[in-house]
Amino acid sequence: MTICELSYYEKWAASMTAVFCERKLITERDISAHLGQQDVPAASHDYKPGDLVRVVEEDFSRVFRKPHVRTPGYVFGCTGVVERVCGRFSDPGLLAYNERSQQQTLYRVAFDHRMLWPSGYTHIDWNEPGSQVHVEIFGSWLRPATAGDVRVCRERAQSARLVETEQTRRIKAHVHAGHESREAAEVNAVAKEHINDEAFPLRPLADALVAALVARKVIAMPELNAAVSDIEAMGANMEGARLVVRAWKDAAFKSLLLQDAAAAAAQLGIATSNYHADGPSAESQHAEHSHAYPDGHTILTVVENTPHVHNLVVCTLCSCYPAAVLGLSPSWYKSLAYRCRAVRDPVRLLREEFGVSIPPHQHVRVHDSTANLRYLVLPMQPAGTEDWTEEQLLPLVTRDAMIGAGLPLSPSSVPS
User: Fold this and answer.
1) 153 tagged catalytic
2) Among candidates 171, 109, 176, which has minimal Cα distance to 136?
3) Which residue numbers delimit the Nitrile hydratase alpha/Thiocyanate hydrolase gamma domain (predicted)?
4) Which of 11, 63, 164, 310 has its Cβ near the most Cβ atoms within 10 Å?
């Protein structure tokens, strides 16, 4: 809502609030308290890998001001296991209020996919391992969990799977007649997500801003064009693929890459953070569990595909992506369809949209890049290429294979 849409007294209230806050007579937290705004309380508990935790349940639909929440709602109230201590970062949640928060510990938590999305399973055997979703969560959102909490979540998942609502029955009974074709539906869906002047009325303002900056000689068009070219060329040299093929050929390098991607990449002269120079290694950070990173710093984490695990990368909240080693993300990676289906039904998504069939003995591990980690998948080396050189292997490594949406090319597809 714009200020022009406010009523007379609303304009006065908004203006006076801004003035009083500016003069530090009151704070925004004072206003928030009277509006019923409650931040997620800071947690003093420190966790280590293997700890059982529960995600705090919050309903931000009833608060006046919406924070920039980096914890996806589909894990609210769920139990999981701490997989990694990632370091200390500033939680961007308060940036929506133009405030900065104190740094806190970021954890990577593993959730059982069956507990999050039980409706997709015809049978659940909790004694058998299943697919997982790994999510980055700040410590203030976590609480220690017990076996009883896990039991409650599992019972809730079983109930959700078994109970068929009236709405579900109506959907199943619905006769699919007179609908547009799938091709037409996809075209319309893409068109709705496409950027256009009607959807973004301030686009002319951006053009005017560039013109004004050039006219004032703040920037020059050649400088601007060079910056755009640099952005468009990010990852064009396939630095991610160089990491992959070196790991295929060098067992020691592979071990380091999986443990500390920044240190391994540095051996090849590759920077892995999207916004800042690589800081202290992950190994030293894990040892201390307390290293504080600058705002915006990202940590590359490499996850390995095995005969039993296939990894898939997504960002359900926006479009976080390992741009430093893969370049700009593809448009479908940012689409609502991919972001939703990747965590809800990854096996079907891979089969229907990417032609990747996951065998029954292989589980999918989804990595939801919700905070400061960026993920790169280390795919399995194609059989029959053990004697190939790194130069011969490079063409086999595709962008999609390094985010789990594809597999390496077969040796027969590469000209000899």
Assistant:
1) no
2) 109
3) 206-405
4) 310
What the block records as the tokens of 310 is 């296939």
- The residue extents of the domains of the chain are 12-179, 181-219, 235-282+294-403
Name the phi and psi angles at 144, rounded to 5. -60, 140
**Which residue of the set 119, 318, 410, 413 is catalytic?**
318
Q: What pLDDT, in 10s, does the model give residues 291-310?
A: 677 777 899 999 999 999 99
On the CB side of 294, CA atoms within 13 Å amount to 9
Q: Which is catalytic among the residues 101, 131, 319, 369?
A: 319
Kindly list the distances between the CA atom of residue 46 and the CA atoms of 43, 159, 199, in Å, as whole numbers in the listed order.
Answer: 8, 33, 45
DSSP code, position 128: S
CATH 2.30.30.370 fits 12-179, yes or no: no
Query: 140, 281, 320, 369: which is the annotated catalytic residue?
Result: 320
pLDDT tens digits along 195-222: 554 555 556 666 777 777 888 888 888 7
Residue in 90, 101, 315, 329 annotated catalytic = 315
**DSSP string covering 58-76, please?**
--GGGSSS-----S-GGGT
Please tell me which residue, 93 or 147, carries the higher pLDDT value.
147
Q: For residues 188 and 198, what is the distance between their CA atoms, to the nearest angstrom?
A: 16
Q: Helix, strand, or coil here: 314?
A: strand
Full-model pTM: 0.75
Q: What six digits make up the tokens of 386?
A: 């053990």
- Closest C-alpha among 343, 280, 318 to residue 68: 318
